[in-house]
Design a protein that fits this description.
Layout: H1 6-9, H2 13-41, H3 71-77, H4 87-114, H5 122-147, H6 152-176, H7 178-182, H8 192-225, H9 232-235, H10 238-265, H11 270-294, H12 301-337
Helix pairs in contact: 2-4, 2-6, 2-12, 4-5, 5-6, 6-12, 8-10, 8-12, 10-11, 11-12
Length: 338
């Protein structure tokens, strides 16, 4: 056996510890996406018109009496002409920032834990460190979102950066699970599976892209038109209806992917379990999307829809990485017995 690759097949206590902290961090990142989407849906994004402080303080005020009498003029001079203190929105945004800082420390801890497995697989440590550096950039980007007065394009970029952090952490987790997946053969898998896996990933990227465009338009209606939420759907352009109908294509293509897996490797295989979880997430995204489209864009449902799309992206990325690792083990075994 090649001694250079043998360690990648083994599982160690250090890898198990790393996976635990990395999974906790990933869950926390998804929680932050939920919190951030809730901030946006509730209109609390400018609850703190400055950054990193909030109304000039590290701990924001709880009443308008704690602010200067001319605070609106002060912030109007800084480019925020419509600033009006709202204690609920201010503290929602402040708690969002505290959550972000907490997750920053979790990702730092993940990077520290990755140091102990660098000799096993240097890519784990590299990806963990990259995720930590990306969080720093995300913090800077958050300040630009505030300074741009919630410009829709900046908000979308902020969201895409969060997904990039998720993908980087998932890459590290998948590498840390490599030994586990290499123990699960995919030799009997349907030959059409790999092709369909790439198809469903492409369909998901297309669907999320259309969803981003819908989200940009909703932001425009929210911040520019001032229309009531119940009238937003009727004001959305044609691609909203394409996005809504395309969800059926995404669902049935993933159901077919699951069928290929169940038929060829059974229900107990990790890839099948991940795919079933993915279909459940698609169901959540479709139900929340239908609720938004037919019940007047309720604010509480918007975060669920966004998190559903983010989870779908993460699960597909994890399935792709896990399949690659399982297939590489089968290829190595074939070569060793040839």
């Amino acid at each position: 056996m090649n001694t250079a690759t043998a360690p990648l097949h083994a599982d160690t206590p250090a890898l198990a510890r790393y996976r635990r902290i990395a999974w906790i961090t990933l869950i926390a990142v998804y929680f932050l996406i939920l919190v951030g989407a809730s901030v946006r849906a509730s209109g609390a994004g400018m609850g703190c018109p400055d950054w990193p402080t909030c109304f000039g303080s590290w701990v924001p005020p709880t009443s308008v009496e704690q602010l200067p009498a001319n605070y609106q003029e002060i912030y109007a001079d800084l480019g925020y002409a419509e600033t009006e203190f709202n204690p609920v929105k201010t503290w929602i945004e402040y708690l969002n920032r505290l959550t972000g800082v907490t997750i920053g420390f979790l990702i730092l801890l993940t990077a520290i834990y990755s140091w102990s497995v660098r000799k096993h697989d240097r890519a784990i440590a590299t990806a963990s460190l990259a995720a930590f550096l990306m969080v720093g950039f995300q913090g800077w980007l958050g300040s630009k979102v505030v300074s741009s007065n919630l410009m829709p394009g900046m908000i979308t970029l902020h969201m895409l950066m969060a997904l990039a952090i998720v993908a980087t952490l998932l890459f590290a987790v998948a590498r840390a699970r490599r030994g586990i997946m290499m123990a699960e053969s995919v030799q009997g898998i349907d030959p059409k599976f790999e092709k369909w896996l790439y198809i469903v990933v492409g369909l998901t990227v297309l669907q999320i892209t259309m969803g981003t465009q819908v989200r940009e338009m909703v932001d425009y209606l929210n911040h520019t038109e001032g229309a009531d939420r119940s009238s937003w759907v009727s004001a959305l352009p044609w691609f909203f209806y394409v996005h809504r109908s395309f969800s059926a294509v995404v669902l049935f293509s993933n159901l077919w992917l699951a069928y290929l897996l169940v038929r060829s490797v059974g229900w107990q295989h990790t890839l099948t379990r991940f795919t079933v979880a993915m279909i459940l997430v698609i169901g959540l995204a479709i139900i929340s999307g239908a609720t938004l489209g037919h019940l007047g864009m309720p604010a509480l449902v918007q975060p669920l829809h966004l998190v559903g799309a983010s989870l779908l992206f993460g699960l597909q990325f994890l399935i792709w990485m896990s399949y690659r690792h399982a297939r590489s083990a089968d290829n190595e075994q074939t070569l060793s017995t040839a």
